[in-house]
Write a structure and sequence with these properties.
Elements (H helix, E strand, L loop, with lengths): L1 E6 L2 H10 L8 E5 L8 E2 L7 H10 L2 E6 L2 H6 L1 H7 L4 E2 L3 H8 L1 H11 L6 E4 L2 H8 L6 E5 L8 E4 L2 H13 L10 E4 L6 E8 L4 E3 L4 E2 L2 E3 L3 E4 L4 E4 L6 H21 L6 E10 L2 E8 L7 H4 L7 H10 L13 E9 L23 E4 L2 E4 L2 E4 L3 E9 L2 H12 L7 E2 L6 H8 L1
Helix pairs in contact: 5-6, 7-8
The structure holds adenosine monophosphate and glycine.
Amino acid sequence: MNIIVIGSGGREHAIIKKLRENPEIDRIYALPGNAGMKEADCVPVGAKDIPAVVAFAQSHDIGFAVVAPDDPLVLGMVDALEEAGIPCFGPVAAAAQIEGSKVFAKNLMKKYGIPTADYAVFDSVSEARAYCRTAKTPIVIKADGLALGKGVLICQTVEEADDALREIMEDRMFGDSGSRVVIEEFLEGPEVSVLSFTDGKTVVPMISSMDHKRAGDGDTGLNTGGMGTIAPNPYYTPAVAERCMKEIFLPTIRAMNEEGRTFRGCLYFGLMITKDGPKVIEYNCRFGDPETQVVLPLLDTDLFTIMQAVRNGTLADVDIRWKDASACCVILASEGYPKKYATGFPITLPENPKHSAQIYVAGAKWADGQIVTSGGRVLGVTAVAPTLEEAVKNAYEAAGDVHFENAYMRHDIGTRALAAKGE
Ligand code: AMP
Ligand code: GLY
């Protein structure tokens, strides 16, 4: 069977590499993919160009599609492909709203009693400003719509909140995503990412992970798409997992069914483990990036079998297994990311990475027969080992053999998790 994977990042590269383990898959086309994806045929079709993706699928004997990024999901890529007779892994647009609108997600949680931060919604700047004067600091302000993972501002003072509201609602720094805002209570505690497979009836959490969102060591600097990940997350203990299943995962699946928005695909729970128990910080309607780069290497069951079962509503019949090991992914970014950075530098990759590490390429293109950098996050290096300590050490050693001129990485991926394990 030929399949297409829509998207172009490190997450998509990890999905493609995992799907390659299935011998029934012939060709994998990445739309648009990137220069580092040797396992796929990259086709210059934009991930949001629904008519072009459908036309490509119909003319290339495509038997299955994996829609990975949030934008095409929210825009209805799965609806269009399914309508054209191409089975898909990913939620329809009505279900993708769980990520596409924070207001929708918050109202859903309130209606169905799913634990999350208290909040209020505003579409008027003056009312939002007035509310901030009564709120406890820090004040968390979120643009309603998609904002490349950057639509959350944590304000320490009322003045900072005023500035944030001006930027989001008046200057529209996130475009129309900022026509409404959610203002919410600041929560404290360790964060855990739990990706899950669900066909709308059964929900199977994947191995838990921890992202490192800030640009600098010691969680300093600006928020990024993610500078590295580890799995499993030591804060996700069996007791926490049990509570999450009962109080969050199953209620969310049921709530979406009740609303007529059955979710099929990967539902990502961004959780904070507060002193009052686990609470939802955000939902994503897709695999996380770079969470996928540590979660999928630990999956012991065929990914394509799982994806087909999710699509067909037979997930309960699949026995999903995980390796008894740990993984660490270190992201190499272009110096200056997430602000301004230079690109176009040749990338040297080791022929055989140390410790059998995987290299997942995100921001690279061909130029004059060479692979050169083309994005903020350039690639991720993932190592799997029996212990987290070894996985971290091995990922950094393997990353040391990857070179490009302005490479930047954090040096403390996994440090917090290792400290927690020692507690
Ligand atoms: P999000 O894009 O929703 O994942 O938010 C980005 C980051 O902002 C999260 O990973 C948290 O670290 C932080 N954050 C979001 N909402 C809250 C909140 N209510 N309280 C504290 N931190 C938050
Ligand atoms: N790493 C966070 C996300 O994918 O949204």
